[in-house]
Write a structure and sequence with these properties.
Oligomer: single chain
Shape: flat
Strand content: under 5%
Low-confidence stretches: none
Number of helices: 5
Mean pLDDT: 81
Number of strands: 0
Helix content: 55-70%
Structural class: mainly alpha
Order of helices and strands: HHHHH
Amino acid sequence: MIACLGFASKRLTFTNRAFRWLSESAYPVYFLHQVGVVAAALVVIGLPLGIPAKLALTMALAVALTLPFYQLVVRPFPPLRFLLGMKSRAKSALSERPDTVESRPPPRPALG
């Protein structure tokens, strides 16, 4: 695990739209997924399926409930952004601009 984290910290130094979205949404989605899991489980628990099928269906429904709720309800509205610990849209819009040369880490010296 430590080797994977070390590799990621050295090699994943770039950014793109997906990384910025994931970075901004990590805490709110973590907070909201609990409601999505419980709501999905309430729907799935009574179905005549095996446990693996119920687990898979609960996971799929939880994702299908949580991510659209975050994107359509939480992300656009400042009061909800504030309540879920997000930056305001003006501040987060600044962080969504593409990488500039100044924000990139300095190149590593060649080994050899």
